[in-house]
Write a structure and sequence with these properties.
497 residues; homodimer; mainly alpha; 3% strand; Neurolysin, domain 3
Chain lengths: 497, 497
């Protein structure tokens, strides 16, 4: 008999929220403020609190309550929270506590070893750790396996629910078919001159412009903070405290600008979640891919368009007159869209970005499903880069060692980035039918675009799943064709093909 | 039978440490970074974690363990930790949980009302809250009372162990006797011209100089951070992460400088605690007064001396040539020591500071021991300011409403500030016999002074009590005469009396 009211869960949920908030703040602090030698000591506190945060929701009492809740009587919000909680149980219950602990320790050691391996440009010292990580991930997936499920599908599902290999194979298959030939044509076209972006740009002035830019995009400084960190990121503890970071480079104007726009996209999503949902399990963006769809919509679809820059560019020229006085708007925007097949994912342009992800997706499939040995990975990596991007890493640190994800135990995460791009293009396709997007951008009325996204996506947090949000907004299921079409149209135009 | 090993306490102590660290970081963040509208939401997490931190150490399991520990077998460190824990139990066990919760809520409401009352310059809206706060504090003290103990002594003991009214009456009595006549003479002497300190001093340059200054004082930036906040403060989560803040004013050069020196004094103490003690209950400074003794030693005894500024002043002039070019070192140092009897404690000079504290001490005694009514307090305040400092507040916000302490439930805290000054002077008296302090300062060898303090005070954290530290360093019990003597000698010299 189901006899428990949802309210019985509240104290546990709130405790989990409180501990999660503390951990987020501590993580933010470690990345933006903490002094060099603090981490070893602070780690003791972090370790204890992480464990506590995990057990706040995963414990026998909560399990018993969950088992006794009558789902019929729940509101949509309560249902969504319960669903999320049950998923967490399913994932963690399958794994013996002891192995979970070992895995946590392995990840933290592997991340340190990866850092050193990257620094020393030596995959061999990291390889044994990666081997163990893969073994654990396969074992964990096997625990959760039902019937004919594939292990990599189980891993993928952890990050982006219900986007498995079948769908991703089709998606990346199309990319391969359409984007690689397009990239080839682009590579043969006349190179775009973007050298003016790499003059000296005073950092104080960059900061000023980037703060202005974030505000222009709608970032609410009463509910948010911008700081600096080695790698840009967004974090939030609730919809009234959302934080982004940027990294400024003296000899690169657009690195900070594009990352400010990207992170502002994430931040607008979080600031836009409804008050009623914030500080609950469904108070954040719906998924990694949906989050990336927002950040990349702002960064790429809008942020690299001429219409976006029309009202803004004069202010940028005013900020850097010496450097930009002789650069017309058209030249600036073309430079923002320069394509260059290269080695590093995080520095990739809009066109090649998904090919970087494709390499990783195929490699992960091989490690999990096809028994590729860890030893082979650097060579497999290099072959794929050669095949898809036409470039070959000279050093392991520019190749197989470039990303942190695997060392943190995240195998199956990368495809979210590519899905995010595709979600964004599908959303954009519908949005253009309902809003005069280009006109609005030209007139500096970007807030009306954000309002549209807020209405259809942001406000729901994780109350609805990505597939549902997409379907309700665009009227159809996930369809990567819009993304392919968007890329083709855009880059044929940019490169006059 | 005592059968429990101290180790049984460790998981509880570590959990308390972890939660305390999180709360400290969150508090720091709220004061230095958080956006305007965040606090209402973050407060939910803070409330839950504060409660949790309290219960981490105060709970039936820990109580049972404490009862079963064989103290004979403990190390000095373990003994000190246990003693601190027992004191915490004594304090909190006497008070019914329900009343503790009510009091917590009252404090948080009273603090908000106090803010508004100060803003509106209207004591009457705050008075009913202060009345309740006093009633609670008296009630709590009564719970802990044994035999003939006085209630105010019990409150005082909470902040500074074993410094009760008997000793404080004697201390403030001497101050009254010696300092008030001295202040009178100073007031009749020729006024010091410090107008040049209030020219325009560019904030960016002030920041640069203050960072240099902190480093010069020995603040270790690998283990610490300097940020900005409304009111300067120091906080730390362990000896490898100690943080101070400063507030810069465009038209005031020395406000930031003196607060940087003051907070650096606190920070040097915390950075100097031994690794073996940090992150334990005895891993912080020995007491409020001992902490103030360090901050005020650096700020006043050293930081306002000509010897200290001899190697530094050229750098300051170089930073602000336009403003200071025509100001010789002697004039600068005299300006730093200008005495002006005035209304606001936090802006008081070195000579009058203790008189501000004396007013508060006498008022607290009257509220707790002599049944002074809350209604009378503003008038009593004003009378005492007139009597001791010769000035009368025109508005309540410059009088009875100026300090936050009472609204937070801190009655009995103020005397620590004055004791800190007296500790500092006593320590200085001994130090001068063992170190050529003035020579060291002139030669920029301040690190040797800090080394001395580290050796005798900092490294012990709260392993030893203030009285013990003082006795071991100076060879005698607490003796306020050194402070009186120091003030007299100094200000007779400054004012050529």
């Amino acid at each position: 008999m189901k006899t428990c009211s949802f309210d019985k869960l509240l104290p546990y949920l709130e405790r989990g929220m409180a501990l999660g908030t503390a951990l987020n703040i501590m993580d933010w602090d470690a990345n933006t403020a903490a002094p060099e030698e603090a981490s070893e000591y602070t780690a003791k506190a972090l370790g204890i609190l992480s464990q506590e945060a995990f057990c706040a929701l995963i414990n026998p009492e909560v399990k018993e309550i969950i088992g006794q809740i009558d789902e019929e009587s729940l509101s949509d919000k309560e249902k969504a929270i319960l669903k999320k909680l049950k998923k967490e149980y399913k994932r963690s219950e399958a794994i013996p506590a002891e192995e979970m602990r070992e895995f946590g320790e392995l990840c933290s050691r592997a991340t340190r070893v990866w850092q050193k391996a990257k620094q020393d440009n030596d995959f061999s010292i990291y390889a044994p750790y990666l081997e163990k990580l893969i073994a654990y991930k396969k074992k964990f997936a096997a625990y959760a396996k039902k019937g004919e499920e594939k292990l990599y599908d189980i891993l993928l599902d952890e990050y982006e629910e219900s986007f498995g290999m079948k769908e991703l194979d089709r998606f990346f298959g199309k990319l391969k078919e359409e984007i690689i030939p397009l990239l080839k044509k682009v590579s043969e076209a006349e190179e775009i001159d973007d050298s003016f972006l790499y003059q000296e740009y005073e950092i104080e002035k960059q900061k000023e412009f980037n703060h202005f830019l974030a505000e222009y995009l709608g970032f609410d400084f009463k509910r948010g903070v911008i700081a600096e960190s080695e790698h840009p990121f967004t974090t939030s503890w609730h919809n009234h405290d959302v934080r982004i970071t940027t990294h400024y480079y003296k000899n690169n104007l657009t690195s900070a600008i594009l990352s400010t726009i990207h992170e502002s996209g994430h931040a607008l999503y979080e600031q836009g979640v409804e008050d009623d949902l914030t500080q609950t399990l469904v108070g954040e963006g719906a998924s990694c891919a949906m989050h990336e769809s927002q950040s990349r919509f702002y960064e790429n679809i809008i942020g690299r368009s001429q219409e976006f820059w029309e009202p803004l560019y004069p202010k940028l020229v005013e900020t850097f007159p010496k450097q930009l006085m002789d650069v017309p708007l058209e030249k600036f925007v073309r430079a923002l869209n320069k394509v260059k097949a290269d080695l590093i994912r995080t520095e990739a342009d809009e066109l090649t970005y998904c090919l970087h992800i494709m390499v990783r997706y195929e490699l992960e499939k091989q490690m999990i499903e096809e028994e590729a040995s860890v030893k082979e990975l650097p060579e497999l990596w290099n072959q794929k880069y050669k095949e898809y991007l036409g470039v070959v890493p000279k050093e392991e640190k520019e190749g197989i060692l470039q990303d942190v994800h695997w060392s943190m135990g995240d195998i199956g995460y990368f495809p979210s980035y590519a899905l995010g791009n595709a979600f964004a293009a599908q959303i954009y396709h519908t949005m253009k039918k309902e809003l005069p997007v280009e006109e609005l951008l030209k007139q500096g009325r970007i807030s009306e675009i954000t309002k549209y996204l807020r209405e259809h996506i942001h406000r729901y947090g994780a109350l609805k799943e990505p597939r549902q949000l997409l379907k309700e907004l665009t009227g159809e299921e996930f369809n990567p064709d819009y993304y392919i079409q968007y890329l083709k149209e855009k880059f044929e135009k940019v490169y006059h093909l």
